Amino acid sequence: MKKILITGANKSIGFETARQLLQQGYYVYLGSRSIERGKLAIEKLKSEGLTNVAFIQIDVNDSNSVNKARIELGKKTAVLDALINNAGINGGMPQGALRTSIDQLHNVFNTNLYGVVRVTQAFVDLLHKSEQPRIVNVSSSGCSLTLHSDPTWKYYDHKSAVYAPSKAAMNMYTIALAYELKDTNFKVNAVCPGFVATDFNGHRGTGTVQEAGARIAKYAIIGEDGPTGKFISEEHHSETGECPW
Description:
The chain is α/β, with parallel strands linked by helices and 245 residues long. The protein has helices spanning 12-23, 35-47, 63-76, 102-112, 114-128, 145-148, 163-180, 209-220; strands at 3-6, 27-32, 53-57, 82-85, 134-138, 187-191, 230-232. The protein has a seven-stranded parallel sheet with strand order 3-2-1-4-5-6-7, sandwiched between helices. The longest helix is centred in the last third of the chain and has 18 residues, at 163-180. It is globular. One of its GO terms (cellular component) is membrane.
């Protein structure tokens, strides 16, 4: 049975991704910063008959927490087949380029970029032991430099000087990571779940949590012919699945 770790999986898209992977027969380690919320999420999944799930406390902002989570997971399994870096924050509004504080930028980058780096580096040894290791970094088409520089794009006026830069930086890390692992069996991609109405964005959105979870889960379990080093946004680019950087 293949095993998958998902960060920030106690609610919303992360939780739905966990649910769908469990329904498909995978074993899921549900990562959550909050012990209480994480255990409640586990209970809910088990109440649905999805029992191949275990809780891992992990705060991606804290190196000590990440290292403790790696030790804890290592007690449960010697192999990890997929890592989904889902934990993220939007940083609050407003996010104007001239009024954004360095503290605001630091807090968001600490989760959305540094958190991805911390977790990936901590767990990559377990991923190396998998025959088909996969890494999915949850991104957003809203961080596309190409789209945001196009005045005809429908979200052109929705600029963010904090969240979008953090995810754009994460995308660049994804490219570098995929390149570094290009001679292995790894598949590493940045995946946009779509514009989904959750508490993350004030419950504004056009897509469903179920659709978002399916998009992320798909790239956590892609086969040998699947892409790597790509930016995927199937909601906006259904023909090729790729989003411009």
